[in-house]
Design a protein that fits this description.
The chain is mainly alpha-helical. The protein is about 90% helix and about 0% strand. It has one domain. The radius of gyration is 16 Å and the shape is rod-shaped.
């Protein structure tokens, strides 16, 4: 039960991080669309956001698996 609770907390935290990453991705894509100067930071924001989204999805599946066992 403690593992399920910790997975739920992890998933909730990653959900909040995903919302922040979504907003930052929108801003980065807007800068890329407008062809701002150096876009290295914007592409790195998108890479980190993809990692956050992937971690959130994986933790969601792990949480669902843990909940289904109880």
């Amino acid at each position: 039960m403690a593992r399920t609770r910790s997975l739920a907390n992890l998933t909730a935290g990653l959900g909040i991080a995903s919302l922040i990453a979504l907003a930052l991705s929108h801003l980065a894509l807007t800068d890329i669309w407008h062809a701002e100067g150096d876009l290295t930071l914007e592409w790195n924001v998108l890479r980190v956001s993809a990692l956050v989204f992937t971690a959130f999805i994986l933790s969601t599946f792990a949480s669902l698996k843990a909940i289904s066992r109880t």
